[in-house]
Every structure is written in structure tokens, then in C-alpha cells.
User: What shape does this take?
Amino acid sequence: MKFYDCATAPSPRRVRILMAEKGIEIETVQVDLMNGEQMSEAFRKINPLGEVPVLELDDGTSLTQVMAICRYLEEIYPDIPLFGRDPVERARVDSINDQLQANGMVAVMEAFRNATPGFVNRAMPGPHNYEQIPALSERGKLRLDNFFSDLEAHLANNQYMVDDYFSVADITAFAAVEFARWVKKSVPEEYSNLLRWYQQVKQRPSTAA
Ligand SMILES: N[C@@H](CCC(=O)N[C@@H](CS)C(=O)NCC(=O)O)C(=O)O
Assistant: This one.
């Protein structure tokens, strides 16, 4: 297998953290997003979307999308389950993970890409160009304020995203909280539950990935 990564990008980082949690090592190729390598003919043969992460299997199959890759790795390396340990827990992990993706990762992406000069005409990743909409950047920042306050309330009664069980949803939330710095948003200092969770996750060696 080969993992197509970009060391500075938040989406492949989620896969790297999951791999580190499971102790998986996969040959890794860096894709230079800064210089547009994702749009090269060679890379688009691997992923026509022009996005990382990609996991290329030994038979040449390319798996794209963070969660699809993570779920595949969970299935072939089931030890240390990160998607839930029974049907209800799996559904709860999926449910909150979807919310964290939409309200955290996507909110930062909108805030960042719609206002950053280097992303003019590239307000969304992928094969199609979209102009920036500055109002979406402002809305993304508002959504992040709500993301933090919703997490603060949630973590008053939960050690992790799902009870006391560390899961892939914590990886998504952690990546989103750190990605938020790109738009100068950080956890308000009075949010003690969220900060407690953040420090706890940050101490895991996998988050250095
Ligand atoms: N839908 C993809 C999105 C991944 C994504 O946004 N990747 C970014 C890096 S964090 C990317 O490849 N950007 C390329 C670009 O901006 O052209 C997923 O969830 O896996």
C-alpha cells in the first residue's frame, strides 16, 4: 500500500493519527499542495479529484476520502477499534463524527479558503474552480464559535466524543480544533471541559503525526 499525504494539510493528518493509534506503518508519498502537484496529470491518474489523502492498494485501487480510508484501515487492522465496539457505539461514533466533520472541518475550510489570497478561485478543493465568497468566510468563523461552545457543553458529560471511549470522532474533532488556528480561532480559555479534552488528546503520541 502507498499513502499519499501532505504533511501540512489537515485532512491527511486525520489518517496519520489513526495509523499512529493503530501502530500501522505505510509507505508514504508527499504531495506538494503548495505548488499544485495535486492537479498534475500524474497525480490525477491516482486521484482524479486532485485531493489528498489517497490510499493506493497493492492492486492499484485508489481509496479517497478520509473516512473511507480510515474505515478500510479499521477493517484490515481491527485491533484497537476506533469506530466503536458494538453496533450502537459504531452508530454513535458515525453520528457525532459526521457532525464534527460538517461543523468543524468544513467550517474552518470555508472560513479559510474563502478569505485567503492564495486560494482565489480555489474556494473549494477538488477538480472544479470556485470563486471566493467572503461572506462564507465570516459565516465559517461564526460556525466555529458555535462548534466550540457546543463541544464545551458536550464534554461536560463526556470524557471523549462518545462517553469514555476514544474514537475516530476524537481524531476529527482534534484535527478541526487545530485547523481552526489557520483562521485565528482558538478554544476560549473559559471552556474548561473542551480544554481538558484537548489536553488529554494532545498527550497521545499519535497527535504528533
Ligand atoms: N473530501 C476530502 C477532502 C480532502 C481535502 O480537503 N484535502 C485537501 C487537503 S486538506 C486537498 O487535497 N486540497 C487540495 C487543493 O486545495 O487543491 C476528504 O474528506 O478526504
User: Anything to note?
Assistant: The chain has two domains: 2-76, 87-208.
